[in-house]
Amino acid sequence: MNEPTSSSSTSNDRTKKKSESSKCFYAFRTGLPEFPDNSEIQGNHDLLTAYGLGPVERAFNGTRRVKEKMSAFLPHVIGELHLDATKEASSLRALIEKPPIHKEISNLSSSAMQGFKLSAGPVDERYRHLFERKQEVDVLAYSEKSNMIRIKPPYDPYGPNQKFLQKRRNDLLKPWSFRLSTDPVRSLTAHVLLSPSMTGMSETSGSFQYTTVPHFLTNCGDSLLDSPLAKKKRMGSRKFAENVPDVSTDDVEKSENWNNSYELLSWMRNDEIGSDAVMEGPFGPRKVVYCDYTASARSFSSIEKYIQSEVLPFYGNTHSSVTVTAEQTTLFMHEAKQEIRAMSGCGDQDSVIFTGSGSTCAVELLVHLLQSEAGNEDVVVIHSIQEHHSNLLPWRKLAKEMRSVEELESGHVDLDNLKAVLKEVRENHGDIKIIGAFCACSNLTGVLIDVQSVTKILKSCNAISIWDYASAAPYIPITFNGETPLDALFFSGHKLPGGVSSPGVLIVKKYLIQATKPKRIGGGTVFFVNDSDEWFLKEVEHREEGGTADAVGAVRLAMAVKMKRAVGEETIKQLEETISRRVFKSFNKTNNLVLLGPSTVEGRLPVLSFLIRSPNSNLFFHHNYISVLLNDLFGIQTRAGCMCAGPYAQKLLGIDEELSREFVNAIQESPDLDRTHLRRQAEYSQQEFLRPGFTRISFPYFFTMQQVDDIVSAVEFVAEHASDFLHLYQVNTETGEWHHQNQRVFHGRRWLGYIQFTPSGLKTKAKIVPDVTDMNTCLRLAQTLALEASQSINLSKIPDGRVAVNEKFQRLRWFVLPIEIAEQRAGRNSQLQGTVFIPRKYSDVPVKQIPEILGKLDEIPKPSENDAKEESTCQVICDDVVCLLKCDDQSTKAGATENVGVDESEAEDVKQMEDWNKRVIVKRIENLRKEEERKQEWQIPPLEMYKKVTDVIHQLKMIRNGDKVLVCLSGGKDSLSLLHILRHYQQRCNKARSTSFQLGAITVDPGSAEFNPRPLIEYCRKLNIDYFYEEQDIIGAAMKTPGLRSICAFCSRMKRGRLAAAAQFHGWNVLAMGQHLDDLAESFFIAAFQNGNLSTMKAQYTTKDNQLRVIRPLIMVREKALRNFAEEKKLPVVAENCPACFNQATERHRIKQLLAQQELIFPDLFNSLRSALKPLLLVVSAHTSEMRTQAVQNIVNSS
Prior knowledge:
Largest sheet: 7 strands, mixed
Helix content: 25-40%
CATH architecture of the largest domain: 3-Layer(aba) Sandwich
Strand order of the largest sheet: 13-19-18-17-16-14-15
CATH class of the largest domain: Alpha Beta
Number of strands: 37
């Protein structure tokens, strides 16, 4: 093919005279005039050109070096040598049998080439990238000469695309012919082995006639493979071995079903491991539908079987070639890396490195490689706002400055803003190194980025172009050496279908690598080591893959890559766009489903992040609840959270920097916790469930459209009926996880502990797989379940999760709680707070889209100032006689038990105060007419609550004949409810002629401007009861008391003393207090935590002077039941009845939150506490020593 070296100049001169057209392999339309010989293809041209694989840029001769094209292509040219060839043919034979892949080719003279016959054979798919990137979208591209069309057929490694052929056969293509020069000096004879059955070609004199696309250049047809010549062994790039396996007829017969990509998709659906998996849920068994491919893909049975049968039997440690296991494993690693090179279009100048666990390790390694040992080079990193944490956080430790580039309304990178940022960096920092780190696809929205456009701009400013292909690699082409080559890219192997547990991949230009030492020093990274020194390997691919290589993972990744290319990147693109359009169109019909990100449906993957808004409120449903509901009802596996792209997720949600810091302060774990000794398995706080997030769903391209429609229908159902099921679920405030109340234990868990190794083999606990219904049946069943769940809402049994939120962070709660839905269903006019953030609205963009979906964000009203100032409905109030909150965290231990009772000293202290005689007395009017009695605003309590109160009264004989009972009325919901309950009990006793007692009320006004209980005077007058209103400037006295550490403790002691003194003064013998079961439980934990005592408020006791009995009839009633009663009956509750307690979060308030959080996980918590506290409730002594003795005795007697 070449002249001898001595005559190369002559050849070059003649070649230069040729026109550009003579350097290319052209096909001519039949009937055109004959071209002169000097315009025909000459034998001194590149072999690739002769094969129609691209034009030659310059002549090929023995003095020039051809590195990549020839060296990669020649091993796969099917050729044979004439027996009478010259001696120099041996050089050609050596070149063919042991091709120097990615090395220089030895000079070959024309005499050496003269004896070589070329046959157009199948080109291995791994090397198609050498010319594939130069192809255009269409099959035909007109050249400068109107009569000549260069052949550029699309590549399909698994056979002709029959649909494509049929479409082009009639309307685009006419008969073709081509000729190769028969120059006797440079003889190159082409023998094309094609059958008419495959290509419609018939051989004529000196030419070949075509009636369809000449796929012989790109496909392995049956006739070609059947020929004897085609059965010769093809050689591949390898070390330690000789030949690439035969391509036999049997192999072709087995692969006939793979010619159609859609048949391959059907095979993938059936071969996916887990496609028939069944989960056990609270609503019955469900088939697992995996929709989280963006996070991690799944395995395929055929790939795993191949690994089990072919890879693992010959598995051994790499870095050796003297044993069959080591050699085979090393070859697998080389071949796997070659697959990556083929997919991405890498060449000699590029390094491909397996990096361990995904993209995170790849970026960390890249940061290391870009730094010299001195490590003093300043760098500015420019990135998009869409970056994953993996492509953001590692650069922060390297960069002198981080700059972000905004996005357009379409979700693409704002190229104008990128240019402006680059210009500003150059103006401010001069020739500083600039690194552009961008993602090829957002893992939150699925929007694809124009890689080439961004790279061109970066290169124009001499910036390094680095790309994160983690979310994009499984679905789009990767062109590392395109029109504008990239400098580095990385992706995660585990995201490719079939690539489970495979390593990450880093591809980087060699000229960028500055590090000379490995990031991880150890075995496999050194050339030689002695006692005093070490010499590291110079080849970065070997130096940075130290230790035992993940050969099995690399093979799995290579097979996943082959499967992707077998389906075809164009096919995947069409499927992804079809699914995206389908999903967007359906989701648009769901009123309360808010999609995050731009509305464009072109140029994106079917990855959707969304929130579901609660009907009739400004709040959303928690993302974890939506995810678990899709799981339990339909088996659909989604992902909830921020998907490791926090900054972009917050922008999508509409969270600014200030609000973001508020969330951090709320959910951050206390730095004072001893993580080591507490054995905390995660980092969390009691407010973790406030962390904002959303639900993400992704659709694999091989799903059928019916599967897609079923999943969309399931999401729409959950959006419509989420409120029906909410009361059945509990949230763990420490993790933010939601679980069905009957599914707190993972019933379907697989345990390693069940595995036993026995002489007869591995044994484990057998799992019975139940029968499951299809998705349509699940949808019908879900309708029935929604109706049943909606009808089962019982307000009294739903924990009030509002008190689980620290009051300081109340405004950060952006999701609705079960109690709020239940109150709405019960007709309560409860005002819900506004959402603290509003998702960003993207405006319409000039592409095909579903614009109506943008309007959904308009329906979310912005939080008003009134919403911000509005008091929470779950505010903890200081009820009844005793101040239940300790407002100083540094209070003495004595202050922790201020609510136990009253004694003589407290009464004496009160009597010494100057304002003792300030009181208002309301006397009961006897013998009222029945008409006047009916006008009184007495309320009848619910039967369940009333029964709990009367059971306690009867069991402990709290009220006896002749008692004069004073209800300690503070104006709170508890004491007001107690007054009405005891009044109803009195009426029932009078009617039954049983216990006869008098009923009155008493209030102590501590003299605070914020607390005004005076309306109670008129209210009690209307009720016609004996009422005593005692005024005492307790707050003023507290201000005058030096060294007072707790206003609450002082206030409680003074109020108790005033109550006792007033009751005795007016001749009443029983004080009825309104503490409930929640109060008793909180007091128990406060006493245990602060005083080390097993004590709580007593159900009843007698004061030390035996003049007064104190009773608590509500000890078995829950606080939420009293709240519901007070709200339903519109009792005149006095707001903020203990203002000093609301200055800060008190210890009692923290205990209340703790119990509320635990109740969300264990709904029967207070029933258990009631049983546990019963021995302490029955203590009747007012003396501390006797109280403890009785408590211990009661515990012993109850055990």
